[in-house]
Amino acid sequence: MKIIVGLGNPGDQYQNTRHNIGWLMLDQLLGNVSWRENKKFSALIYEAGETVFVKPLTFMNNSGLSVQKIIDYYKLRPKVLGFINKKDQTLNDVLTVIHDDLDLDFGKYKLATDSSSAGHRGVQSIINQLKTKKFNRLRLGIKTEMIKTHIPPDKFVTQPFTTDEKLKLPEIFSEFNLQDLQKE
After folding, report:
1. Could you give the C-alpha distances from 12 to 91, 111, 160, in angstroms and in order?
2. Cα end-to-end distance, the chain, whole Å
3. How crowded is residue 10: how many other Cβ atoms within 10 Å of its Cβ?
4. Which domains does the chain have, with CATH numbers?
C-alpha cells in the first residue's frame, strides 16, 4: 500500500496559492476524480487500487494530524516484534509527501528521504506526529524574484501564483506520473 499526500490549505482563498502546490499537483496527475471527505482522517481522500491519495483538511501547519490518522488506520507503521520501533522506524516504502519549498527556485524540484523539514511547518507537523523523518518527500520549488522584495515568507506562500507561473505548472507537473510516485 502507498499513501501519497499533497500538502495545502482548505478554502477557496488558498485554492491557487503557492502553499497549495501539493494539492494542485495531485489534481493535475489524477484529473477529474471524485475526492471524498473523510472526517475521521480530516482529509479529502481518493483511493486507486493500493494507493490512497490524500489532501489534509487540517491546514498546513497541522498536516501531521491527518497523516498520522491515515498511517495508523491502515496499520502502516513498521513494527519489530510487535512493538513500534521509533528509532529505526521507516515509512520510505509507504509514504510520499508533496509540498512547496521556498529554498528551491520555481520550476525546480528535489526528491528527499530522511531529511529535516528545513523550516516547512507542514512537514515538521508530519515529522512530529509520526516521530520519524524517514519518509519520501517531493519538494516543489516556489521561490521567485518576488520573495527578494522582502515579502515575509508566510505571506509569500499564501499568495496566488502569477498568471505566467500558473501556465507553467502543468509543464512542471508533467515531469512526474503516478507510477513514479507510487514507486518511491
Report:
1. 32, 29, 11
2. 12
3. 19
4. 2-183 (3.40.50.1470)
pTM score: 0.91
Alpha-carbon gap, residue 135 to 61, rounded angstroms: 18
Grid cell in block for residue 141: 520549488
> Does the annotation mark 120 as catalytic?
no
Query: In sequence order, what are the beta bridge partners of 140?
Result: 100, 109
Residues 167, 160: Cα–Cα separation, whole Å: 12
The residue among 6, 96, 24, 16 whose CA lies nearest residue 60 is 6
Catalytic residue among 19, 99, 120, 150: 19
Task: Report the DSSP beta bridge partners of residue 45.
Answer: 36, 54
* Residue tagged 519549498 (cell numbers): 101
- pLDDT tens digits for range 32-49: 999 999 999 999 999 999
